[in-house]
């Protein structure tokens, strides 16, 4: 029981952190540079390699594939045929309203993609299989 509560607290804390990071921006910058915001989530699509954490198990060199479902949603899926492929894919609402950042937050999970660093962070807070992935675009 205590381990479950700790997992829920940890996952909730990660979601809050990612949500706070995703809302960082300066409206003045957007006003000074009209058109600098591409508004497209396409930049976040691709293949990522990094660390997938499922509970206490870490999979290094894990591959995640991010595809565009439509103009407002991205699908996050582990590479098939791998030991970690059992993690369920997630489709998450996405937005690109802050230059250099594509992020999303909905019941399926929370993610953030930093364009300049080509770094993806994904947190799926689900009781069956909660997992996190942090990786770089290949």
Keywords:
138 residues, 2 helices, globular, nine-stranded antiparallel sheet, Lipocalin, alpha+beta, 9 strands
Structural class: alpha+beta
How helix-rich are the residues, as a percent range?
Answer: 10-25%
**Strands of the largest sheet, in order across it?**
4-3-2-1-9-8-7-6-5
Estimated radius of gyration? 15 Å
Number of strands: 9
Write down the overall mean pLDDT.
Answer: 82
CATH class: Mainly Beta
CATH topology: Lipocalin
- Which range does the strand content fall in? 35-45%
Helix and strand succession? HHEEEEEEEEE
Number of helical regions:
2
Domain module tally? 1
Using the 3D structure, state the CATH architecture. Beta Barrel
Q: Alpha-carbon distance between the termini?
A: 40 Å
Low-confidence stretches: 26-37
The shape, in one word, is: globular
Main beta sheet, described? 9 strands, antiparallel
How would you characterize the overall build of this protein?
With 138 residues, the protein is an alpha+beta fold. The chain has a single domain, classed as Beta Barrel (Lipocalin). The chain contains 2 helices and 9 strands. It has a 9-stranded antiparallel sheet with strand order 4-3-2-1-9-8-7-6-5, with helices on one face. Strand 8 (119-124) and strand 9 (131-137) form a beta hairpin. The radius of gyration is 15 Å and the shape is globular. The chain starts with a helix and ends with a strand. The relative contact order is 0.22.
